[in-house]
């Protein structure tokens, strides 16, 4: 890579450093561009670095640092900063990008993003935060395929110095399905259509087996094979080891993904372009597998590494999968085995109500009782907040109200929500973790749906104070406000959109 600038640059062990002053109304140009494909014939290619100077229109002249695979950084002794111009395709024959050309590219980029945001249907109270989240989801979308990655980073720790360091640079079916819902809510149907096209290609290549026809995650090209590797030669962020590339959760059974996937298809069929014959055929085949396997233990939404359990949320989402397929079939008059589908749907519902409800605590719980008539373990889980959002229970159901209050007492601290208590529910990993950002937004939406709108508004606006200066969130927030885990995370921002739009509607 080569960094061009009209600031004098110094190579320090492969990093580019420059000191400069800028006043109001002035700008400084930085252009980071790739070397030629072969890298041959270029001074300083390889591991070393070099500093060059070339004539240019700026008074200070033009400078460049070429440092193999390293990137450059700039700093100001006055605390000022200049936005880098965005180069187009670079080649040696063109030389450094001129300031005028860089400004044109910058202006075109701004115009594109403003034009894209102008398509948003959201005009509510928290437009800036919602639109920042929409931009994050768009930037996490792989344009050539329509895939939506969970996060662009890997191995940023959930606990500093700990082992909870995962690679999120893949397409989680769960995250992408929720993202589709958020994009449809805002009116971005083209992105939703692109994701459905990517999903259809994955369904065409799906296979049955122990893990079922769907996998938890895929590469942006639709490959479900994502082996996990520990990179022992890397120290990790602030000493957080091991650094992992790949993710072995790709080989887990997580039954909730079927509900999230089919719910997103249901919404697309209702608000988007509708599902094709081939997609419906694939969905029917997937549902046939699920109807034979829904009463199976799995690793659940949180991808625990402590073995498979009968998770309440997984059962709820299996119910969602069957219920939404019934809805699509009825709405479109599509072929379906409705007798069997309704029978299995009702069986799942009864199981959750009988084995997922702890009468002693008066709450739904993280896991089901081992057998009919038994008492489930008393541990709570923030995913239970989604029960009315997926229409499994009414938000006015006394069982859900008491569950919300139990979660408030055990998992909520200052408006931030833990996904569960790892001290009570061992997940196979050592160390602690922060509050889960998506759970905090689920908390807001649960309060909204139970009619506690002022309490929800206070919680939402408090969570907004934890965003960084660009309105983005990591996966988790520590108790002292630090961002933990991979950043930015699609899961968090899609929940923000949903919470804000629903609260807006309730406030009127």
UniProtKB/TrEMBL annotation:
<keyword id="KW-0378">Hydrolase</keyword>
<dbReference type="Pfam" id="PF00723">
    <property type="entry name" value="Glyco_hydro_15"/>
</dbReference>
<feature type="compositionally biased region" description="Polar residues">
    <location>
        <begin position="67"/>
        <end position="76"/>
    </location>
</feature>
<feature type="compositionally biased region" description="Low complexity">
    <location>
        <begin position="78"/>
        <end position="90"/>
    </location>
</feature>
<dbReference type="InterPro" id="IPR008928">
    <property type="entry name" value="6-hairpin_glycosidase_sf"/>
</dbReference>
<dbReference type="GO" id="GO:0016787">
    <property type="term" value="F:hydrolase activity"/>
</dbReference>
<protein>
    <submittedName>
        <fullName>Glycoside hydrolase family 15 protein</fullName>
    </submittedName>
</protein>
<feature type="region of interest" description="Disordered">
    <location>
        <begin position="35"/>
        <end position="96"/>
    </location>
</feature>
<feature type="domain" description="GH15-like">
    <location>
        <begin position="126"/>
        <end position="500"/>
    </location>
</feature>
<dbReference type="InterPro" id="IPR012341">
    <property type="entry name" value="6hp_glycosidase-like_sf"/>
</dbReference>
<dbReference type="InterPro" id="IPR011613">
    <property type="entry name" value="GH15-like"/>
</dbReference>
